[in-house]
Input
Amino acid sequence: MTTDAALELQVRDARIRLYERMYRGSVLLPERLSAAFLNVDRHPYVPAFFRRVAGGFVPWRATAGDMAAWLAAVYTDESLITEVDGVHAEDAAEDEWMPGTPTSSSTMPSLMADMLDALNVNPGDQVLEIGTGSGYNAALLCHLAGDHNVATVDVAPRLTERARNRLEEGGYRPVVVCADGRAGHDRGAPYDRLIATGSVPDVPSAWLEQCALGALLVIPLKGALAGGMIARLKKTGPGSASGYILHSPASFMPLRGERELVSRPPRVEGRERVTAVPGAVIDDWSFSFFAQLHLPPAVVRDYDDRECVRLYDPGDGSQARVIAEHGGGHHVVVTGPEDLWEPVERAYAEWTARDRPRREWFIVHITPKRQWLSLRTADGDELTWTLPGWAGTA
Output
C-alpha cells in the first residue's frame, strides 16, 4: 500500500470516528448532514493549531512527526484554536510558547452540526456565511447547497486567501470575500440561508436586508460574558425576524472588528461591600446569558486575574472586582461612577425567582426599531429584555 493510500485510509477512519463520537453525544443528524461530515475532510483547513501548554499556547503542525496523533487531535469533537492575539498557528515559530488570548478557532464539530441542522440547508439554497475562518464550515455548506450557491465573508485577508485556496484544493469554488462581516455581501442577495460563525451583540440590519422573505438565519449572540446564545430566526418582513434560542450553550469569539480589544483596567482602590452572589456565577453557562441582558453594552470581562472576577466599562472607568474570602463569603470592590456588580445581583435574583429559566425557553424578536428576548411565564405574563448590543429605541 502506498503512503498516500495509507494516509487516505487514516483520514477516512478519523472522519468516521469523529462522526461516531458526535453520534454518541446525542447529535442525531439528518442523512444529508451526516453525509457532509462523513465526506468532508477537516484536516486540510487546520494544518496547524495551538495546544494549551503551561498556561500558554504552542503550535502543532501536520509536519510535527506523529501524523496519527495529529489526525486524532484534528478529528476530535473539540474546538481547535487557530490564532492567539492575532498570530495564526501557521505563522508562529516552531514549538514557540505564547501567552495571550485566542482570537480565532475552528468550531467544535458537534456545535457546527447543531447550527447547520437548525439552518436546514437544501440543494440550491443561496447561502451566506459570515466568518470564513478556516473554511471548514464553508466546505460543509458547499457540500449541502452546491458550491456555486455559497458566499463566505471574513475581514482578515490572510484567512480568506488561505480558505479560498484550500476550498479550491478540496474541489469547492464558493465566492470568498474579504470584507467587514457586519455589512454582509449584497452582490449575492437575496439569500435563503445566513449563518454567522462569530458572535455579535445584536443582529446587523444588513443581514436581514440581504435575506429573502422566509429565510432562515442562525446567529450567535453574545456580549462580554462567556455564556452566549445561538438564535435561529426566520425573516418575517422588512427588517423583521423572530425565532428561538437553541439549547446549545456557545461562546463564539466576537466577529472580528465587532469589539476592539481594550487596554487592561488598572488596579485602583474603591468602595468595598459584601455580596451574596459569588463571582463564579459569571461563568455559569446556564445563567451568564441572562446576566448579559442586564449589563451595560460596553462592559468587558477581564480574564487576567485568577483571584477574582473583574468587570470593566472602558467608557466611564467603572470596575467591579468580586473576591472570594478564604473563610467563605464574598466581597466586591467597586470603583468609578457605576456599581457594575449590582446588575448581576439583580439578574441573579430575578433568574432564581423565575425558576432558573433555560435559554431555549426564550423567544427572539427583531424589528427595525427594537431587538429583544421575551419569556412567557406560567401565569401568562410576558417578560422582555433588550439585547445587549441594541442601540435603537423601543
Remarks:
- DSSP finds nine helices and 20 strands in the chain.
- The CA atoms of residues 282 and 288 lie 5 Å apart.
- The chain has a mean pLDDT of 88.
